[in-house]
Each structure stands twice: as structure tokens, then as C-alpha cells.
Amino acid sequence: MIRNDAPVRWGLGFQDPATPVMEGIVNLHHEIMYVMIGVLCMVIYILMRIIYNYDYRRNREVRKEKRGALIEAIWTLTPTVILIIIAVPSYALLYAMEEEVSPGVTVKIIGHQWYWSYEYSDYGEEGISYDSYMIGEEELEEGDLRMLEVDNRMVLPIKTHIRLLLTSTDVIHSWAVPSLGVKCDTVPGRLSQVGVYIKREGVYYGQCSELCGMNHAYMPIVVEGVKVEGYKEWIKSKI
């Protein structure tokens, strides 16, 4: 099965979800779209009926309509009920996004103008840290994605609770990876936290989603999800 974990030409939908949170976001979007289509059809029907019945060429008589308490109650309560129905799964998804679980891996992400730094502080006295820069067009190989490939990918284990700590050294950036359902601002002087649980192996692409300066478009994100055994081998190679 071909996965869509990166932007595609003429793509209009979501990238394939790789985390439970992103699956919830996609499902909630689809459910709300059905509600929106139903509301749209109802409003269009009412408008067309009003235009037809009150067309001056069809009916030149002045109609005196009385106020109806029942209809006013219906068009007031119906949107309220719809919003309550939408709010229930929305609150459940928000709770899941903010739920704190004891992490198996912690990674600190630091935004710079205009690149990313990653720090794995759980391994050894000094830990593992490295910078991630975009690969220029002249260095791309066949099959690489223009303006999305980096020299050092962020490697994370799958089926493991991961805690991401995000901050910045200069201006506000935004670390966003659509397939993982993550989009969090990195603010100077502040440490933000996001939980991630990757369900499958893959390479996931993202970009800075906050206007952070002249080279804002040149700080992509590449996350590689690997099995725990492969992650351990990668850690050993970095220590």
C-alpha cells in the first residue's frame, strides 16, 4: 500500500495519518463535513423556496406574515443542538491531544533562523544533539523531494510514547508534521510540550508553519519512524 506522507502535486486532502491523534482529526473533519453539507442543503432549499414564493412577478399581492414562536424556537434550537453534537467528539479529541503519558523517549526541538536542532538527552552524559539543514537543489538525488529533504533526519521509534519539548533561540517558529498531527509553535524563552505516538514505519515530511523571516520556506522537517530495534542501533551509532 502506497502511503501519502508528503505533499503531492494537486493534493487537496489530508496526508495519511500515522498517529491516533491525526486519525481523530481526519475522522472529525469528515463527520463535520457531512453536517455542513446537510446544513448547506437545508439553507439553499429555504432560500430557493423564499425566492420562488415571494417573487414579485409571480405574486404581486402584499403578504402579511405573522410571527411564529414555534419556527423561531426551531431555528434557534437547531443550530445549538448541532453545535453540541459537534462539541462532544471535539472535546474528546482535544483531551487526547493534551493527555500526558509517561514517555519512553524525550526529544528537545530547537528552532533557529533557519534550521532545526534536535537533542536526545536520555542517552549518556552529554546526550545526542545535531542540527538539521535543508539539502540544496544541487545536492538532491533522484527521488528526493525538492525543498523538503534534510541532511539529518529526526529519528523516532514507532509504537512508543514520545515527548517532544519545543523552544526557539531567536523568533517564533512552528514545528509542523501533518501526518503526525503535530503543529506547535516554538517560542523563545518558553518550553512547549507535545506527545506523539507513531503507529507505523515511514518518513514524514513537514515545514515551519510560522512566518519567521526571509528564509522561512527553507527549514523543512523530516521525521523517520523506525522499529525500536532500529532506533536502538541508530542511538548506538550516534553515541
UniProtKB/TrEMBL annotation:
Highest taxon of source: Eukaryota
Cofactor(s) required for function per UniProt: Cu cation
Residues annotated as domain Cytochrome oxidase subunit II copper A binding: 102-237
Annotated Cytochrome oxidase subunit II transmembrane region profile domain residues: 6-101
GO cellular component terms attached to this protein's record: mitochondrial inner membrane
PROSITE patterns found in the cross-reference section: COX2, COX2_CUA, COX2_TM
Cofactor note: Binds a copper A center.
One Gene Ontology biological process: ATP synthesis coupled electron transport
Subcellular location: Membrane; Mitochondrion inner membrane
Lipid bilayer topology: Multi-pass membrane protein
Single Gene Ontology MF annotation: cytochrome-c oxidase activity
Entry keyword set: Copper, Electron transport, Membrane, Metal-binding, Mitochondrion, Mitochondrion inner membrane, Respiratory chain, Translocase, Transmembrane, Transmembrane helix, Transport
InterPro entries in UniProt: CcO_II, CcO_II-like_C, CcO_II_C, Copper_CuA, Cupredoxin, Cyt_c_oxidase_su2, Cyt_c_oxidase_su2_TM_dom, Cyt_c_oxidase_su2_TM_sf
Transmembrane regions listed in the UniProt entry: 32-52, 73-97
Catalytic activity: 4 Fe(II)-[cytochrome c] + O2 + 8 H(+)(in) = 4 Fe(III)-[cytochrome c] + 2 H2O + 4 H(+)(out)
Main localization, broad class: membrane
The family this protein is said to belong to: Belongs to the cytochrome c oxidase subunit 2 family.
Alphabetized NCBIfam families for the sequence: CoxB
Summary of the function given for this chain in its UniProt record: Component of the cytochrome c oxidase, the last enzyme in the mitochondrial electron transport chain which drives oxidative phosphorylation. The respiratory chain contains 3 multisubunit complexes succinate dehydrogenase (complex II, CII), ubiquinol-cytochrome c oxidoreductase (cytochrome b-c1 complex, complex III, CIII) and cytochrome c oxidase (complex IV, CIV), that cooperate to transfer electrons derived from NADH and succinate to molecular oxygen, creating an electrochemical gradient over the inner membrane that drives transmembrane transport and the ATP synthase.
Name the UniProt record assigns to this protein: Cytochrome c oxidase subunit 2
Organism this protein belongs to: Galdieria partita
